[in-house]
Records
---
Amino acid sequence: MTIGEGDGMAGDFGARAEQAGLGAFRGAFQPARRPTWKEMRFRDRIGLVILVGGLVLVVVAAGSSSPVTGLIVLAAFLGFLGLIVFGFKSQTRANVGRELRFYDRGVAVVGTGGATMVPYRWEEMSVLQEITKHYRNGRYIRTTYVYTLSGPGAEASRVKGGTLDGFERPEAWGAEIQQQVTAVQLPPALATIRAGLSLEFGPFSLNAERLSSGDKSVAWSEVQAIKTERGFLSVKQQGRWLNMTTRAVSRIPNFFVFRTLADHLVEAARSSQQHGGAGHRS
């Protein structure tokens, strides 16, 4: 599967990736860039024209009423534009060489200028994810993504999307991280559960029979549904929704693995009940 195109620096990273055991290179994501005038949506163009036009009118009006006031407003206007240009150039420099590189057995976060490369293997990764939809006056604006990656012997990396300093196409690379980590870590997790042992995901502890958090516990056979709403996990038991922890799912490591495992155990308990009931009736 090809995720994206590298920037020609693959040779510089090959030895590091091989040493980290990441396997073959698959593709890379680059930092998001500001859209050009042609790429901007029509309403965004109109908004920009209105903003600049309004500021120009303020400067003209101030200059007409008082030369001194006009100079002050003009200086403020030019300072405002200077800050925007400075911020844009600073962010552009910070993005040079940054990449999110995907391999068969993991992912690597490359820093500014390609000076650093932090590798993470799917089988060892711990991931915190925070996906937030933003609204203004009830109207959807955008979605931001923050993934915090960590692993044995590697410093944590915050990987963003939907922001000026984030990587392009976060819905794609975010889903890829979730799918790969789940595919690699779920089988051994299931094997641990089947061996009669327990696993912990943040505040949650689960085994083949029950899900527990603190002093709250519920058998999988009693779970009617599981949902995530407003960033928190709820479990439906005997017709009522139970909030088992006050910790947001964004603070639960590998929550997507936990959720897949929990859904599997609920389904297994349900299937066991149905088969047991059918055997009793016969």
---
Amino acid sequence: MSKVWFVTGSSRGLGRQFVEAALSRGDRVAATARTTTGLEDLVATYGDAVLPLPLDVTDRDAVFATVRRAVEHFGRLDVIVNNAGYAQIGAVEELTERELRDQMETNLFGAVWVVQAALPHLRRQRAGHIIQLSSAAGVIAMPLGGAYHASKWALEGLNEALAAEVAGFGVKVTIIEPGGFATRDGKNPDPLANGHMAQPDPAYAELRRRLGAVAGKQPAGDPAAAARALLKLVDSDNPPLRVLFGLGFYPMLQQVYADRLKTWADWQDLAAEAQGDLAHEAR
């Protein structure tokens, strides 16, 4: 049975690949982006199966109106892909209030507006699948990525809570955590070259130099392969809450989680001390 998709950030990168993969197998897609000028070829190829819609996800009213238009056009929604987002790069000390707020407005609040707009329709259907594009940056953190990490870590917690809230309505939630993918001229994007950059402070020049020597050098995944993997996810009867796309960060994630568990274990005496003995105090 064909599915109806609603995809944000669909004009390029992984979002574009997701849209093409869905259309190529006979699904229908409401493809949204800040500008739809890059989607004309899909309309020429797939006709009424694709509905290009201009959308700035930071505009809550526009999000609700766009979701309504997609439902009116296709009659239902089955797969919601929150893909729109960008990376703000800069040391925490360098970030302006505007840069941090803009990062959260797009990556976090934009995703929330889409979920809130789509959920009444999914609940009424008693079915649907919300796909949240997070990142390996949603479970680990590196220097100069504080704003981006903050937005992705927030999305991880939000969607974990969401999954428990909507499971009883037959709605599934999956958080995808991609590593690097060749979304720019067949190469893994270098965030220090392609991200939104804060005004650099000379105090962090050496850190930037060291990170710049390794940034974007990890093996790049194939976006088309990621799109095929997404199709398997949305067709699964029991999809995972979280899944990595790509293997590059898996060893690092294993070490990070092992280190966290060890640190908590090593400091259990202090944890117990911090709790105090309320029962004793009550006596």
---
Amino acid sequence: MKVTLDRKNNDYLFEAKGASGNSVMIDNKTVDEVKGSSPMELLLMGVGGCSAIDIISILKKQKIEIDTYHVEVEGDRKEVGQAKPFSAMRVNVYLEGDIPPAKALRAAQLSFEKYCSVSITLQAGVEVTYKVFLNGEEVE
């Protein structure tokens, strides 16, 4: 897998592209007019996107329709010298529809414990936890 980044201004704005050819703008939050996501925001988005694709795929294979899907990913950071890596991430998955609660929870469990390459990559140094909410109620 390979991505490219091309600088787009005289500061920190980059256009990143992967094999798909689609681009993502990356910027530094310290500039006056931010025009892209920060690299740390992209990590959170990667966890949210990866798990979303898994969960939707798992439920679709079971012929379960999802009316709406929303995910929130929040990260805690710690200071390590000059860097501030994530120490923990919390993912809240919100599903709406006629979905059996046990199947929604199992899909999330499979994603975070078996399939989501992004969260599994981070596992060694970042505690990634998740909750599933179905039609407004937490599934346990």
